[in-house]
Specification:
31% of the residues lie in helices and 25% in strands. It is built from eleven helices and 13 strands. Strands 1, 2, 3, 4, 5, 6, 7, 8 and 9 form a nine-stranded mixed sheet that branches. It has a four-stranded mixed sheet with strand order 11-10-12-13, covered by helices on one side. Strand 3, helix 3 and strand 4 form a beta-alpha-beta unit. The longest helix has 15 residues.
Length: 319
């Protein structure tokens, strides 16, 4: 049975406590030795064939030291990655394997393909962990034709039972589309990055909060700015605020201010970096650590439950 989506305790105020909440990123993880790396590919395959080949790869990956074979997955990680996002998705995953040993299932839709079916690529890597070998599995599925419109039928048999399911959706979702609806129904938590969207759809996003817990990497990128502006209380409550920056990040920061201050905030301008001016005076930007995309996603995979402050910011941004 799927567990219910968790709920984070409500904020206690509109100032520094709720302003500074965010995802901490642990950079202390170190890479263990890669013991084994094996792959398999097949065209027009069945899910049963995929499961059989995964088992074969695990059985053939005995280590030179005779280490025991453990699949210590902590989650099932789904990735919806249209072709234009596939390269970035694969690059991000390279930094996740040891910190989050998991079964990762990358879904690349090809709905215009002439023939329906599944093409698969499997990769299994094992890392040293004491006297054991810890596995990370990556299953990349190209869903051709009508198969792309029913991804849940391909995914459900491959989920690891009793483990949480995280869905990373690359690009802007088609909120009313069958793939989105099906995969949200499978996942315990959805991770998006509204900074990847070609058009913001905050009203549609807000409606999804009744269906699933959502993490937004663009929201995480605003954390340092939220902390900086929280330190400006109470003066900021009466000041004119102007925001510029990347559309997704800036709109979320504006929505957060609107939801906390309960008043309007000047419409954002589009710039490469976030900037804020109070009564026409630029605010010194916070020191930003150069987190990788892998570290950003890793932090979101450590979170469970909903983020009411984020949800309020989204609703305020779309109002």
């Amino acid at each position: 049975m799927r567990r219910e989506h968790g709920v984070r305790p409500p904020p206690t105020s509109c100032c520094t406590v709720t302003a500074a909440l965010g995802v901490g990123i642990d950079r202390r993880r170190t890479m263990s030795a890669l013991l084994h790396h094996d792959t398999w590919s097949g065209e027009d395959v069945t899910v049963s064939e995929i499961e059989r080949e995964l088992q074969r790869l695990r059985n053939s990956s005995a280590t030179p030291t005779g280490a025991m074979h453990l699949r210590t997955s902590v989650l099932t990680h789904l990735v919806w990655a249209p072709q234009q996002w596939l390269g970035e998705a694969e690059e991000t995953l390279q930094g996740l394997a040891e910190g989050h040993p998991s079964r990762t299932i990358i879904l690349t839709p090809a709905p215009t393909a002439e023939a329906s079916g599944i093409d698969a690529h499997l990769a299994l890597r094992s890392f040293a962990a004491g006297q054991h070998a810890v596995y990370s599995e990556v299953i990349t599925l190209t869903l051709r034709g009508s198969t792309a419109l029913a991804p849940a039928s391909s995914v459900l048999p491959l989920l690891i039972s009793d483990l949480p399911v995280f869905l990373r959706w690359r690009g802007r979702p088609d909120f009313g589309g069958r793939p989105w609806r099906q995969l949200v129904g499978v996942a315990d938590r959805v991770v998006i990055d509204s900074g990847e969207w070609d058009e913001l759809r905050m009203a549609e996003l807000a409606r999804e909060f009744s269906h699933t817990a959502v993490s937004d990497i663009a929201w995480a990128r605003t954390l340092e700015w939220r902390r900086t502006l929280a330190a400006c209380w109470p003066a900021i409550t009466e000041q004119e605020i102007r925001i510029a920056g990347p559309t997704g990040d800036a709109e979320l920061l504006r929505g957060w201010l609107v939801s906390r201050l309960q008043r309007g905030v000047r419409a954002v301008g589009v710039e490469e970096q976030l900037s804020v001016a109070l009564d026409g005076v630029p605010v010194d930007p916070p020191i930003r650590l150069a987190y990788t995309s892998s570290e950003r996603l890793s932090a979101e995979l450590d979170r469970f439950g909903r983020d009411p402050v984020y949800e309020e910011a989204v609703r305020a941004a779309e109002a």
